[in-house]
């Protein structure tokens, strides 16, 4: 298996593991070997929305073609019979999907069926399919049935999300609703645990679990522990034996799973951000690694024919192949702007080289005596021509990032996001504020009402003691004047009261931001992105609460915050959940999972944290990925009740 | 890590079967299930298209196997040391080339045929897409196998060209080295490729011929012993010079060789690109032709419309003028009738109403 060949940590690139598993599935569950003179085998891929979400960040249409897939269709669309072709199904085992499969079997759409279920299918549903197959006399056509255990979406090499389609079910709101019943909670927990279980099966390692007490995370931990334990006991069907575990066993290290509840830190999802990837997620329409931009065609005078102005919608994929993205997704925005400029200039230089060659070659044809120049230029020409596809690709990427960055910059300028960012940093690090909060809130052209709400909520959350009633009234009035909805505030008040009872408020560490001021502004005016009035802020390393908790647990540091975290080890024979960790060594790999939702800011923070440490890996996961807008919506829904 | 539950599935099938039997439910088969399946198999419309596509693929596979089988022998030419089994004559190689080419041509024709036929009589968009993709895969496979063939052909052609070029270079150095020592020539030749064995073979032949007159000249020049060291020195210098020239020529030849190879590669890339653009240019050409025709027609339509407009206007004016004249006329007549007792003239149309 390719997975076993990866040197070192078992937590190495979850993306590669999932891709390998998908490719194997597409190859009829036989390990995929690249053979340049192999015969083409064609097949049809049928998926449901879950399958689509899982496959789309990992495999492009071209890669699907390379694997021999001629058509890829949604399960619940109208499909015509295509005789004499095998069909690979990749779906969740829900009632409707099973019904549709039975229908397909009855209609004899394809020649042979390879059924792959994203998570384990129950015996009764399997019998339903068997029934339909018998009725249609198609039992031999069902060639293979597999449980793939791939019920999670990998977005980055080290980041995963549980679901995109039914995220209503496992959203922050669903978990924290005051009117939730026990059964509903059970369902939500089961969904989360199922996905986490699939994740660990794909990873091929059994983790040591730690979670805080009295939160939703604890429930998830208990259930996950139970499930893993049951699976390990069942020696016949255990999913954790076999050669995929080879690498994990050799490293003698088991990863650490830290289950964190969203309620520990509500300020980070509301925070305005300054790094590229987080900004794109916050400001533009970005999910499953795809950005959707709306470009309005400019203010032209419409001709006498009076056609309405159309807005072009463009969508771009930000993939791991995109080197610029990989390098700069965590950099602060001004750096990104400069790098795009640099890339553009180097691209132009290369283009000029090629054009110059063209003119030289033009001269060549007339001047017979310059044959000696020819010999040198032939080599140059060859290298130029062979590098042409690379150049075109580079140009495409530069265009892509220019568009994206310009869109982001427009938003920043319109909403003065840099001001918010700076201010929030100051609030969160408890340094002195130079401008009063009221001023910013009442400022009419600094940001949308939502931005102001976010700012105020962060202030409220991180204040040591709640502001006095009079102040609060003042703020509320200012906020309503600015057009904000006050429901989220209701909820945050409740949360704060509860959180105070539970534990000490978390601090956000020390940070300073240094606005670089006039000098950098002068330097920046030369660049295409004229960032006048946008301060060039330098981020200093700060540790968000999530990172701090992880640091404590990974390095086995003693800290009142994390000392009473529960400890689970599914491999231990006796199922006691003592709080005393048996293992005293610091962990090499860790997986941080946030129950209730996560975002790119935390992810970036973790990545930065682990960059400083050699040989350690971190994976970040969350039950859903939201940006501040969506979070505010959820909070206001919660506050309305 | 995926879990194969096919066996579980088959077990469920058995369970369901037994359950249905127990319940007495006829499940559209039951006992005759297996027989029914067999019967169902044969009348199923065997897809013509895919069976033909599969045929083409198996043909290409045969070609590939054939090429791979003989590849080693094909390439391992020219080593005279090889045993008899490995040798392949040139005629055999030509035969292989020709066969491979005709084969490839027939395969590509078959694919073209399939392409034209694929879209006939099929109404479903999905099936059309599927067939196009299948044909693309087949073409790609053919291209890959052709690459195998062209690679080994390129190696063979390169060797032939090298050989020719080296044999062409041979007469020049021969005239220059007539006075040089044979030993240096022979010592140089083993440093070159073994391919040049036929070439140096000729030197030793010529040199003994030369050696004799030289011996003769030496025999005559015994009285000039004091000069011969100088002669030897001169000869040595000339030798050095000639060696230098030879080396530089050799280097230049190598360079030119490299350039030519690069140029061929460039040519290949260019031809590929040009061929790709051919289809697009055809498209554009068609569109442009259509556009010019449309514009012509549009112009004519506009001209006609203008004419009609003008004509229409003329008629309208004429009608109005006629109307006004007739009104005047009638008016006159009325006036004339009303004044029939009195004067017979009316002002505007004076002499008209007499």
Automatic annotation (TrEMBL), chain A:
<dbReference type="InterPro" id="IPR043127">
    <property type="entry name" value="Sec-1-like_dom3a"/>
</dbReference>
<dbReference type="GO" id="GO:0032580">
    <property type="term" value="C:Golgi cisterna membrane"/>
</dbReference>
<comment type="function">
    <text>Plays a role in SNARE-pin assembly and Golgi-to-ER retrograde transport via its interaction with COG4. Involved in vesicular transport between the endoplasmic reticulum and the Golgi.</text>
</comment>
<feature type="region of interest" description="Disordered">
    <location>
        <begin position="295"/>
        <end position="315"/>
    </location>
</feature>
<dbReference type="InterPro" id="IPR001619">
    <property type="entry name" value="Sec1-like"/>
</dbReference>
<protein>
    <recommendedName>
        <fullName>Sec1 family domain-containing protein 1</fullName>
    </recommendedName>
</protein>
<keyword id="KW-0653">Protein transport</keyword>
<comment type="similarity">
    <text>Belongs to the STXBP/unc-18/SEC1 family.</text>
</comment>
<dbReference type="GO" id="GO:0009636">
    <property type="term" value="P:response to toxic substance"/>
</dbReference>
<dbReference type="GO" id="GO:0015031">
    <property type="term" value="P:protein transport"/>
</dbReference>
<dbReference type="InterPro" id="IPR036045">
    <property type="entry name" value="Sec1-like_sf"/>
</dbReference>
<dbReference type="InterPro" id="IPR043154">
    <property type="entry name" value="Sec-1-like_dom1"/>
</dbReference>
<dbReference type="GO" id="GO:0016192">
    <property type="term" value="P:vesicle-mediated transport"/>
</dbReference>
<keyword id="KW-0472">Membrane</keyword>
<dbReference type="GO" id="GO:0051223">
    <property type="term" value="P:regulation of protein transport"/>
</dbReference>
<keyword id="KW-0963">Cytoplasm</keyword>
<keyword id="KW-0813">Transport</keyword>
<dbReference type="InterPro" id="IPR027482">
    <property type="entry name" value="Sec1-like_dom2"/>
</dbReference>
<dbReference type="Pfam" id="PF00995">
    <property type="entry name" value="Sec1"/>
</dbReference>
<dbReference type="GO" id="GO:1902902">
    <property type="term" value="P:negative regulation of autophagosome assembly"/>
</dbReference>
<dbReference type="GO" id="GO:0005801">
    <property type="term" value="C:cis-Golgi network"/>
</dbReference>
From TrEMBL, chain B:
<dbReference type="GO" id="GO:0005484">
    <property type="term" value="F:SNAP receptor activity"/>
</dbReference>
<comment type="similarity">
    <text>Belongs to the syntaxin family.</text>
</comment>
<dbReference type="GO" id="GO:1903358">
    <property type="term" value="P:regulation of Golgi organization"/>
</dbReference>
<feature type="compositionally biased region" description="Basic and acidic residues">
    <location>
        <begin position="167"/>
        <end position="182"/>
    </location>
</feature>
<keyword id="KW-0175">Coiled coil</keyword>
<feature type="domain" description="SNARE-complex protein Syntaxin-18 N-terminal">
    <location>
        <begin position="4"/>
        <end position="96"/>
    </location>
</feature>
<keyword id="KW-0813">Transport</keyword>
<dbReference type="GO" id="GO:0031201">
    <property type="term" value="C:SNARE complex"/>
</dbReference>
<dbReference type="GO" id="GO:0019904">
    <property type="term" value="F:protein domain specific binding"/>
</dbReference>
<dbReference type="GO" id="GO:1902953">
    <property type="term" value="P:positive regulation of ER to Golgi vesicle-mediated transport"/>
</dbReference>
<dbReference type="InterPro" id="IPR019529">
    <property type="entry name" value="Syntaxin-18_N"/>
</dbReference>
<keyword id="KW-0472">Membrane</keyword>
<feature type="region of interest" description="Disordered">
    <location>
        <begin position="167"/>
        <end position="227"/>
    </location>
</feature>
<comment type="subunit">
    <text>Component of a SNARE complex consisting of STX18, USE1L, BNIP1/SEC20L, and SEC22B. RINT1/TIP20L and ZW10 are associated with the complex through interaction with BNIP1/SEC20L. Interacts directly with USE1L and BNIP1/SEC20L.</text>
</comment>
<protein>
    <recommendedName>
        <fullName>Syntaxin-18</fullName>
    </recommendedName>
</protein>
<keyword id="KW-1133">Transmembrane helix</keyword>
<dbReference type="GO" id="GO:0090158">
    <property type="term" value="P:endoplasmic reticulum membrane organization"/>
</dbReference>
<dbReference type="GO" id="GO:0006890">
    <property type="term" value="P:retrograde vesicle-mediated transport, Golgi to endoplasmic reticulum"/>
</dbReference>
<feature type="transmembrane region" description="Helical">
    <location>
        <begin position="312"/>
        <end position="330"/>
    </location>
</feature>
<dbReference type="GO" id="GO:0005789">
    <property type="term" value="C:endoplasmic reticulum membrane"/>
</dbReference>
<keyword id="KW-0931">ER-Golgi transport</keyword>
<keyword id="KW-0812">Transmembrane</keyword>
């Amino acid at each position: 298996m390719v997975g076993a060949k990866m040197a070192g940590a078992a937590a190495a690139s979850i993306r590669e593991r999932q891709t390998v598993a998908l490719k194997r599935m597409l190859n009829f569950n036989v390990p995929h070997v690249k053979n340049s003179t192999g015969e083409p085998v064609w097949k049809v891929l049928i998926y449901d929305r879950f399958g689509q979400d899982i496959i789309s960040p990992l495999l492009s249409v071209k890669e699907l073609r390379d694997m021999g897939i001629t058509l890829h269709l949604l399960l619940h669309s109208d499909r015509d019979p295509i005789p004499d072709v095998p069909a690979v199904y990749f779906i969740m085992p829900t009632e409707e999907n099973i019904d549709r499969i039975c229908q397909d079997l009855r209609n004899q759409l394809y020649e042979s069926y390879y059924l792959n279920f994203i998570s384990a299918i129950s015996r009764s549903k399997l019998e339903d399919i068997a029934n339909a197959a018998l009725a249609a006399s198609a039992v031999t056509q069902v060639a293979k049935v597999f449980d793939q255990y791939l019920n999670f979406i990998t977005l980055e090499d080290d980041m995963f999300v549980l679901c995109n389609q039914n995220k209503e079910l496992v959203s922050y709101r669903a978990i924290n609703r005051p009117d939730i019943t026990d059964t509903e909670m059970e369902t939500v927990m089961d969904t989360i645990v199922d996905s986490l279980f699939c994740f660990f099966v794909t990873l091929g390692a059994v983790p040591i679990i730690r979670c805080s007490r009295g939160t939703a995370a604890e429930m998830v931990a208990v259930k996950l522990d139970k499930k893993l334990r049951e699976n390990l006991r069942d020696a016949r069907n255990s999913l954790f034996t076999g050669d995929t575990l080879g690498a994990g066993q050799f490293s003698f290290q088991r990863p650490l799973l830290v289950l964190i509840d969203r309620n520990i830190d509500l300020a980070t999802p509301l925070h305005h951000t300054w790094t590229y990837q987080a900004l794109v997620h916050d400001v533009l329409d970005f999910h499953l690694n795809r950005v959707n931009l709306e470009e309005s065609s400019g203010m032209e005078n419409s001709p006498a024919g009076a056609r309405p102005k159309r807005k072009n919608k463009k969508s771009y994929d930000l993939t791991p192949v995109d080197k610029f993205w990989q390098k700069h997704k965590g950099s602060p925005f001004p750096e990104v702007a400069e790098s795009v400029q640099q890339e553009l200039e180097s691209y132009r230089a290369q283009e000029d080289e090629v054009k110059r060659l063209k003119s030289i070659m033009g001269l060549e044809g007339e001047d017979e005596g310059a044959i000696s120049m020819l010999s040198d230029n032939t080599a140059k020409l060859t290298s130029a021509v062979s590098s042409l596809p690379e150049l075109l690709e580079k140009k495409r990427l530069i265009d892509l990032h220019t568009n994206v960055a310009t869109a982001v910059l427009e938003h920043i300028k319109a909403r003065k996001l840099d001001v918010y960012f700076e201010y929030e940093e100051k609030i969160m690090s408890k340094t002195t504020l130079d401008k009063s909060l009221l001023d910013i809130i009442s400022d009419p052209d600094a940001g949308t009402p939502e931005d102001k709400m976010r700012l105020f909520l962060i202030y409220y959350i991180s204040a040591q003691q709640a502001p006095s009633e009079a102040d609060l009234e003042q703020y509320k009035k200012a906020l309503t004047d600015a057009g904000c909805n006050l429901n989220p505030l209701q909820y945050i008040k409740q949360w704060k009261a509860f959180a105070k009872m539970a534990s000490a408020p978390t601090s956000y560490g020390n940070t300073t931001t240094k606005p670089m001021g006039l000098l950098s502004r002068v330097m920046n005016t030369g660049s295409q992105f004229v960032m006048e009035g946008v301060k060039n802020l330098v981020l200093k390393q700060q540790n968000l609460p999530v990172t701090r908790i992880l640091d404590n647990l990974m390095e086995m540091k003693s800290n009142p915050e994390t000392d009473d975290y529960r400890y689970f080890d599914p491999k231990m024979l006796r199922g006691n959940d003592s709080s005393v960790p048996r293992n005293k060594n610091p962990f090499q790999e860790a997986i941080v999972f946030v129950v209730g939702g996560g975002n790119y800011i935390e992810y970036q923070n973790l990545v930065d944290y682990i960059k400083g440490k050699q040989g350690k890996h971190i994976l970040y996961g969350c039950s859903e990925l939201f940006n501040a807008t969506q979070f505010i919506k959820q909070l206001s829904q919660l506050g309305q009740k | 890590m995926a879990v194969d539950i096919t066996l579980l599935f088959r077990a469920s099938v058995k369970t369901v079967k037994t359950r249905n039997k127990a319940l007495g439910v006829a499940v559209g088969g039951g006992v005759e299930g297996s027989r029914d399946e067999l019967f169902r198999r044969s009348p199923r419309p065997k897809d013509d298209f895919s069976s033909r596509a599969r045929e083409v693929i198996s043909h290409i596979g045969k070609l590939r196997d054939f090429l791979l089988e003989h590849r080693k022998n094909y390439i391992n030419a020219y080593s005279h040391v090889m045993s008899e089994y490995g040798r392949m004559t040139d005629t055999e190689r030509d035969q292989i080339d020709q066969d491979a080419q005709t084969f490839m041509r027939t395969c590509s024709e078959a694919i073209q045929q399939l392409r034209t036929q694929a879209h006939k009589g099929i109404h479903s968009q999905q099936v059309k897409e599927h067939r196009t993709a299948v044909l693309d895969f087949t073409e790609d496979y053919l291209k890959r196998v052709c690459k195998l063939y062209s690679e080994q052909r390129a190696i063979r052609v390169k060797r032939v060209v090298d050989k020719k070029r080296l044999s062409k270079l041979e007469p020049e150095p021969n005239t220059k080295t007539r006075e040089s020592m044979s030993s240096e020539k022979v010592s140089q030749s083993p440093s070159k490729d073994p391919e040049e064995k036929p070439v140096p073979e000729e030197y030793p032949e010529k040199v003994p011929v030369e050696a004799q007159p030289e011996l003769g000249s030496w025999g005559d020049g015994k009285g000039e012993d004091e000069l011969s060291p100088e002669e030897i020195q001169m000869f040595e210098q000339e030798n050095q010079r000639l060696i230098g020239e030879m080396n530089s020529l050799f280097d230049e030849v190598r360079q030119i060789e490299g350039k030519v190879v690069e140029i061929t590669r460039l040519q290949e890339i260019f031809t590929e690109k040009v061929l790709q653009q051919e289809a697009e240019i055809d498209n554009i050409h068609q569109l442009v032709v259509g556009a010019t025709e449309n514009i012509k027609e549009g112009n004519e339509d506009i001209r006609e419309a203008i004419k009609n407009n003008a004509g229409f206007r003329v008629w309208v004016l004429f009608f109005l003028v006629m109307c006004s004249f007739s009104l005047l006329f009638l008016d006159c007549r009325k006036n004339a009738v009303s004044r029939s007792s009195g004067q017979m003239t009316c002002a505007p149309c004076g002499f008209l109403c007499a």
